[in-house]
Amino acid sequence: MHHRQIILLRLYSLLATFIVSSPGFAGDNPDKQEKFSDNNWYLLVGAGSSHPGWGATQEKVDTTDIILRHPYPQARTRGKSWYLNRKSVLVEIPLTLLRDPDEPAMIGFTMNVNWTFIASQRLQPFILIGGGPVYTKAEIPGTSSRLKGSYQAGIGLGLLLGKFGLSVEYRYHHLSNGGFKEPNDPLNSSKLLFGIKLPF
User: Fold this and answer.
1) Which domains are present in the chain?
2) Does the predicted model carry a pTM greater than 0.70?
């Protein structure tokens, strides 16, 4: 196996191990500071665009993104004052509709580590990082392989409104097949997403 492919597999394995073993994913609530709902679901909708010339990206691809998210927070908090934060794991199922070029959609499974700053009970900034596999039949010039991998990093702001909640976030998103098949031009994209906490 190609050296770059081995490195990519190891990175994905380390990421998955780190996320799954985190207390938030395992349900570890050592401080028992509050009880979290087991059925918090979020719906995120937004748009994205790849940037030719950003890294090895060659093609301009515009997308509409629909993401179903389920968070697994942990009760333990870290820090104090304005940087008091809580870690959680965000399990997401992203559906990516390609607007330009007009190609079949992409479906994925993503796990992100999220840190939410909770000094305010209403406005809560957050950061996230993660990745996962993506499947698509889309034929974008310079890309190949139906099974691809993604990683991403983002920042955002959540607004809590009782049982409801709203959020806005920006993400950097990378998509490629990791060198398993040629050609392998990556898609480096920006995504702007708006979310709503579903009341069930």
Assistant:
1) 3-198 (2.40.160.20)
2) yes
